[in-house]
Specification:
Blueprint: H1 3-16, E1 27-37, H2 46-59, E2 64-67, E3 73-77, E4 84-87, E5 93-101, H3 104-123, E6 127-129, H4 149-159, E7 183-188, H5 194-212, H6 226-232, E8 243-244, H7 253-262, E9 264-270, E10 273-281, H8 282-285, E11 291-297, E12 302-308, E13 321-322, E14 324-326, E15 331-334, H9 347-356, H10 359-367, H11 379-386, H12 397-418, H13 427-435, H14 439-448, H15 453-460
Parallel strand pairs: 8-13
Antiparallel strand pairs: 1-5, 1-6, 1-7, 2-3, 3-4, 4-5, 7-15, 9-10, 11-12, 14-15
Helix pairs in contact: 2-3, 5-10, 5-11, 9-12, 12-13
């Protein structure tokens, strides 16, 4: 079979076949929380983290576990609910993810029980979780990945950015995955809805920056959603199609397939070894007879070179990080939202679930928008502008407030149609729409008034 046909068949099997089934209203929620040491300026003590994990497992039955090369547990799962405790990239970030379900209120109840137990256990060790998009002690923390093949490979890959031209194209924080945190939601899609979902939410991204920004970064916090730049100006953004927003309007499934072909692959697995290599667009990957890669030799304690042959099934290792990402599970994953203050942790998932029920009305509202659109800027440019602390002069605050409330009206209407009483998760977003103050903007203002980052982290880490 020619390379193109093998590639199409593999893309279809991994990305498009899962869309060929009746769509449900199930939602998956993934929440990443910084783990921080309450002592000002002190790094996270991994011993305290492991102790809290052990305490958690003594209280909740999560029998499906995985450990790193030193024996430290980094993932535990409850097969009955699909809920999972894990550590994202490093032991500085704890993730709680939940099996897909229709009722977010039931998931929220489980979340509160898990979070309260973890917070109490960490507090006994002078540590805590918080709802921030950047770890409050990121500069002091140990930049060590979890000791397994996957995370060693990932950090080694990101650290190789200097081979590709260096500054100003890339920032000098290749370990950003060890301190930046997201609130991610996955929404079921099918062949009829996946294109409208991606197109509509792509246009919505500038408004989401206003509501959800929570990762101030840079001198004075001039960037309120620093996660955007940390991703796009890392080696993940070497090919701009691999992360961030879509610069095109997708017209069909064929367009989406073509877009996936244009994204780059940079890692595979062979015989239990994680291999990473120079990113290459998928469209030319199979044309390579052999490729050079690197892998971690744990016995020797060093990276080694090897050769491998590309295979069509390596499509399974394709890792785009789009804000609206088609997954291999028949879902669209929303990746642009920073972790939120814990009391508002489910606002993002509810927002996306509600608007997915109102796609046509949402698309019509955005097509007629003049609060942000119609001033000479496209969606990606507007996302960048609205992620800054200082907005451009054409932004009229009263018009922006009114449009945000219209968007929230559609989300609330969609949630009422789901019938689970999830509308109350949107309450904090109404307040943000009124004030035009995101968690990041609030954080920067409070620091400007002399409050410590530790005090804000305590506040953002509190359960309702």
């Amino acid at each position: 079979m020619p390379d193109k046909q093998r590639l199409y068949a593999a893309l279809d099997a991994h990305f498009f076949a899962p869309l060929r089934r009746p769509r449900t209203r199930r939602v998956g929620v993934e929440l990443e929380f910084p783990v921080w040491n309450r002592t000002p300026g002190a790094p996270t003590d991994f011993t305290a983290v492991h102790g809290a994990t052990a305490d958690f497992l003594s209280r909740f039955n999560f029998p499906d576990t995985a450990h790193d090369d030193s024996g430290a547990l980094h993932r535990a799962r409850d097969p009955k609910t699909g809920d999972e405790l894990s550590f994202d990239c490093s032991f500085n970030t704890l993730e709680l993810s939940f099996g897909p379900t229709e009722d977010l209120t039931a998931v929220h109840d489980r979340f509160c029980a898990y979070y309260a137990a973890l917070q109490a256990a960490l507090d006994r060790q002078g540590h805590a979780l918080t709802g921030m998009g950047i770890n409050p002690h990121w500069k002091e923390n140990r930049p060590e990945p979890i000791g397994n093949g996957r995370y060693r490979m990932l950090l080694h890959h990101l650290k190789s950015y200097s081979k590709y031209g260096g500054a100003p194209r890339f920032h000098d924080h290749p370990d950003f995955g060890l301190f930046s945190c997201a609130s991610q939601a996955q929404i079921d899609a099918d062949e009829a809805t996946v294109i409208p979902i991606i197109n509509t939410f792509n246009l919505l991204e500038p408004f989401k920056a206003v509501l959800f920004a929570n990762s101030p970064f840079g001198d004075g916090g001039e960037t309120l959603c620093g996660r955007d730049r940390l991703w796009s100006h890392s080696l993940h953004g070497l090919n701009p199609h691999n992360c961030g927003m879509y610069g095109v309007t997708l017209r069909s499934l064929d367009d989406l397939e073509g877009y996936l072909e244009s994204t780059s692959i940079y890692c595979v697995e062979r015989g239990g070894w994680y291999l990473n290599f120079t990113p290459i667009p998928l469209s030319g990957y199979l044309e390579k007879g052999t490729m050079s890669a690197e892998y971690w030799d744990g016995t020797a304690g060093m990276h080694r070179q090897c050769l491998f042959s590309p295979d069509a099934d390596d499509v399974a290792w394709l890792r785009p990080f789009k804000f609206e990402d088609l997954t291999q599970r028949g879902t669209v994953e929303f990746r642009s939202v920073c972790e939120q203050p814990v009391r508002d942790a489910f606002a993002s998932a509810a927002f996306h679930a509600g608007l997915t029920e109102n796609l046509t009305a949402m698309a019509e509202l955005l097509a007629a928008d003049t609060a942000l659109y119609g001033h000479g800027y496209g969606a990606a440019e507007l996302r960048g502008l609205m992620s800054l602390r200082a907005w451009p002069s054409f932004v009229e605050h009263s018009a922006l407030r009114a449009q945000l409330h219209r968007i929230l009206d559609l989300a609330e209407e969609g949630l009422r149609g789901r019938g689970f009483g999830e509308e109350y998760f949107l309450v904090p977003l109404r307040r943000r729409a009124d004030t035009l103050v995101s968690p990041a903007r609030e954080c920067v203002e409070r620091i400007g008034q002399g409050e410590s980052i530790e005090s804000i982290a305590d506040d953002y880490g509190a359960l309702p």
